[in-house]
Write a structure and sequence with these properties.
single chain; alpha+beta; 15 helices; 22 strands; about 30% helix
Length: about 475
């Protein structure tokens, strides 16, 4: 039995690590010492609220899902409630987005599941589904233990245009990846479940939609007045954790009673002994830390690749913008931009009486990292030019701007990711139950998924150390 009080290290100060710290504070025995180690100077990971033209603007994640796949409130909403921030949640006032097709904007058709249609007629305005390819072959689309790429499944049933013009840009907006490379099980778990039962893709989409009904008019997304960094700050406060910024954990070594962390530079290393560790860092840093104590686990975890992106935000004086939340760009359009958001149109609480508009564009697709080597000014000028071309009108010169680069930010879940992760976690629990993995590299992207991942890791640590005292 580990002595009291427990000492737990959370390596990584993103939202997954902070959610783990809050859950540890809530469920672990009183007096538990929690320390968060963040190698950069900023907490929150991809949650980062900055300022542009005198108002808060997200330079990272913009919003969170309000509901989880079962229809219950999402883990992000539950955390906001726990932190006393539920009253700050606001929703988009404009929800309609568009696709760039043949150089112009067309509304994204409704009734799809991340672009995969349950009614082929509804997508005819943007893509021509393959005729009669989605036939009943007398067996489920996907085997009971199989995983395939989203693109392979949808192309075989609906043809190339549905993938290239709908599914690929929608997945690209979330993962900066390609539908042909991304795992169905990890990126679209609801569809994967029904595809193991249904014999047609239309049937699988409809079954997945029916399994997670949404009340008419219920908001899908939310954000926080004041910015998502308020969630980060409130989580730090509620966790009561000691926060170590600019503190890179370079080595993780088992001891007789737990773990020894090597923190800081090789010339001035600090050794810290703890009882348990939550590794809430991306897959490759986690693999480096696990290479000594759990080499097989490290090999499985470290195989995950990542995409890099840049977010170019501009404040534009009284531009003529459509009444849209933004638009997505298929890679077949040949533009640098892959998505754009009209912040001050989409979010009513951000609208300004002076007509100044904030527009943000996302740049960078997996495999095209060379495009991100351009200087900030070049990226911003290209984005401004492409936005003007898509909108069909010259945009005014920005009065303020910001380029945020996120290197290695978005995991690329190849088919089989879920099985590889399950095997790695099983091996880690068997050999080292007082280490748990948390974050987007393991369980999926999005704030609710990362929050849930951190909370689950915290529960595993509590169980491994002897259970909750609360």
């Amino acid at each position: 039995m580990t002595r009291q009080p427990w000492r737990v290290a959370v390596v990584g100060g993103g939202i997954a690590g902070l959610a783990a710290a809050v859950r540890l504070r809530d469920r672990a025995p009183a007096g538990t010492e929690i320390t968060v180690y963040e190698q950069s100077g900023a907490l929150g990971g991809k949650l980062r609220t900055g300022e542009l033209a005198g108002q808060p603007v997200e330079f990272g994640a913009e919003s969170f899902l309000m509901r989880d796949p079962t229809g219950a409130e999402s883990a992000a909403v539950a955390l906001a409630r726990r932190l006393g921030l539920a009253g700050r949640i606001v929703h988009p006032t404009v929800g309609q987005a568009a696709l760039v097709v043949d150089g112009g904007l067309r509304p994204i058709p409704g009734g799809t599941l991340v672009g995969v249609p349950g009614d082929l007629d509804r997508v005819a305005t943007v893509a021509r589904p393959a005729a009669d390819a989605d036939t009943d072959g007398g067996r489920p689309l996907v085997g009971p233990d199989a995983d395939v790429s989203v693109g392979a499944l949808v192309r075989s049933r609906f043809g190339d245009e549905v993938v290239d013009r709908l599914v690929d840009p929608m997945l690209g907006g979330v993962y900066a990846g390609r539908a042909d490379d991304l795992s169905l099980v990890t990126t679209m778990p609801a569809l994967a479940r029904t595809a193991r039962v249904e014999h047609t893709l239309v049937g699988a989409v409809r079954a997945a939609q029916a399994a997670a009904p949404r009340a008419p008019g219920a908001p899908v997304f939310g954000t926080l007045v004041g910015g998502l960094s308020t969630l980060v700050e409130a989580a730090v406060t509620a966790s009561g954790a000691t926060v170590r910024r600019d503190a890179a954990v370079r080595e993780l070594t088992p001891t007789a009673t737990g773990w020894r962390l090597t923190v800081g530079s090789t010339r001035d290393a600090e050794l810290v002994d703890v009882d348990a560790v939550v590794l809430a860092v991306p897959a490759r840093p986690a693999a480096r830390l696990l290479a000594g104590p759990a080499p097989a686990v490290a090999a499985g975890v470290g195989a995950l690749d990542y995409a890099s992106v840049a977010l170019v935000t501009m404040a534009l004086p009284q531009p003529r913008l459509p009444e849209l939340s933004g638009f997505l760009v298929p890679s077949t359009e040949g533009l640098l931009i892959k998505a754009a958001t009209f912040f001050t149109t989409k979010w009513g609480h951000l609208r300004r009486p002076d007509g100044l508009a904030v527009v943000r564009a996302s740049v960078g697709r997996y495999g095209e990292e060379a495009q991100l080597q351009r200087p900030d000014a070049d990226l911003a000028a290209t984005v401004h030019r492409e936005l003007s071309a898509v909108l069909g009108t010259p945009l005014p010169a920005p009065v303020d701007g910001h380029v945020q680069r996120w290197g290695g930010a978005l995991p690329q879940y190849a088919p089989g990711h879920a099985d590889r992760l399950a095997a790695a976690r099983t091996a880690l629990r068997a050999a080292h139950p007082t280490v748990a993995l948390a974050g987007a590299g393991y369980d999926g992207v999005g704030i609710p998924v990362c929050v849930r991942s951190g909370e689950t890791a915290a529960e595993e640590i509590i169980t491994a150390l002897g259970g909750s005292a609360r």
